[in-house]
Amino acid sequence: MKVAPVTRTVVTLISFLLVPGTALASSPTDWIRGTLGDVRSALAEQGSNGKSSQEKIIQMSRLIAELFDFPELARLSLGPHWQQRSPQERKEFVTLFGKLIARSHFMKIPTKAKAEQRYVGERIEGDRAVVQAVVMAEDNEIPVDYALVRYNGTWKIYDLGIDGMRLSEIYRSQFNKVISTGPYDDLVRRMQIKLQEFTVEAGAEK
Hints:
By secondary structure, the protein is of the alpha+beta class. It is built from eight helices and five strands. The longest helix is centred in the middle third of the chain and has 21 residues, at 87-107. The radius of gyration is 17 Å and the shape is globular. The two termini are 26 Å apart.
C-alpha cells in the first residue's frame, strides 16, 4: 500500500510517543506530558547502544504495544468490514496491523526530535479521554488530539487526530480502496508484503 503524504506527516508526529508507558497520572494530560518527557532520552539511548536495527525494531515494537490499544485502533481502521470478519480473522488482523504500525512508526522516527508541544484542552468521559495539544514543527502549529482509553488503571492511545484528520480515518480510506476492488484476503496479503518490506529494510540498515 502506498503511503500518502498526509500519512507520513501523521507518522512523523506520533513518533514522539514511542517511549515506555508510565503509570496512570493524575490526568490524561499528565500521562501524555510524562510520556513525551522521556522521548529524547529513549531515542538517544537507541542511537548509542550499538544494537542492530532488527533488535531496535523489536524493542520499539514492545514499547509501542504498551502505549497503543491496537484492537480498538484496528476496529476503527477496518470500519464496517470489521463486523464481517470472524473472531479468528479479527485476532489475526489485529496482530498484523499492530506489527505494521510498530515497524512503520519506528522507521520514521527522526534521530533528533525538536518539536515542542503545548496542551490546550482535555475532555474526560468515563474511561475515555481526549487530550488536545498543538505541536510546533518547522515553524508550523499543528493541532493534535490524543484519544485515550483507560484499562486497568493506565491509559492507552486508541486513535490520533492530526490537523483534523484521524489516524484511523487514513487507514480506513486505504483499506476500503483495497477491499472495494477485491476480497478481504487481498488486503491481508498486501499488509503481509508491506511487513516483509519493512523487515528487509531493517536488515539492510547497519
